[in-house]
Design goal:
Elements: H1 2-16, H2 18-47, H3 56-77, H4 84-108, H5 112-144, H6 150-164, H7 166-175, H8 181-206
Helix pairs in contact: 2-5, 2-6, 2-7, 3-5, 4-5, 4-8
Length: 208
């Protein structure tokens, strides 16, 4: 009963403030997208780049780490110069464009070397966008959550992110049997851009 009451209390605090539930949604989506891309890339490097599955480590993970570092550096040099809402909007837009363009190029390019280069760049930009979104989302969440609820709310973030992990596995298993990976990138790129446009309106009104 105590656990149920605590859960209700967290949900009530969360759903009442856009500055709390929007960051939670963003952090969950980041976890979902990273999981989705990790799985899709295994098929992508084999089908489109003619590489082994183990190549995912250097064509995805290494440039992703570089992107995370570059994103952190960007946040450092723009500290307090650009609003947090604007940074998150830039991150979601960059993410959507990156995935969309990767999908387009994977379907129209036949030169493997060019596609490998684009893939490395895409992985880097995904890392940059992940930092731009997640760092400020966590900061906003921490600033606007009541201090006595902070631990519980971040526990909710952990649970939501953990719940998002198996979803890409099931989703990819259902989709990849019928649709090429490139078209899946296209679809999620378009969805991400639509989400970015929606977020921009919400962030401009509530988060600066």
């Amino acid at each position: 009963t105590r656990a149920i009451n605590m859960t209700r209390e967290v949900i009530n605090v969360t759903k009442k403030d856009v500055k709390i539930y929007i960051p939670i949604i963003l952090l969950t989506l980041i976890q979902f997208y990273i999981g989705l891309l990790s799985i899709l890339f295994i098929d992508y490097v084999k089908s489109y780049l003619n590489l082994s599955s183990t190549a995912t480590s250097w064509i995805l993970i290494f440039p992703l780490m570089i992107g995370l570092s570059l994103g952190t550096y960007f946040l450092k040099i723009t500290n307090k110069k650009i609003g947090r809402g604007t940074i998150i909007s830039i991150g979601t837009l960059l993410f959507g464009l990156t995935i969309l363009l990767l999908g387009i190029f994977s379907e129209i390019l036949t030169a493997k070397m060019a596609l490998k280069t684009i893939t490395l760049l895409a992985s880097t930009f995904v890392g940059i966008s992940a930092v731009l979104i997640s760092v400020h989302a966590r900061t906003i969440l921490q600033e606007h959550t009541p201090e006595n609820m902070l631990g519980r709310v971040f526990a909710l973030v952990t649970v939501a992110a953990s719940a998002a992990i198996p979803v890409p596995i099931l989703l990819v298993a259902l989709i990849t049997e019928k649709v090429n990976t490139g078209y899946i990138f296209l679809g999620f790129g378009v969805f991400s851009l639509m989400l970015a446009a929606l977020l921009k309106k919400v962030l401009n009104n509530h988060i600066h």
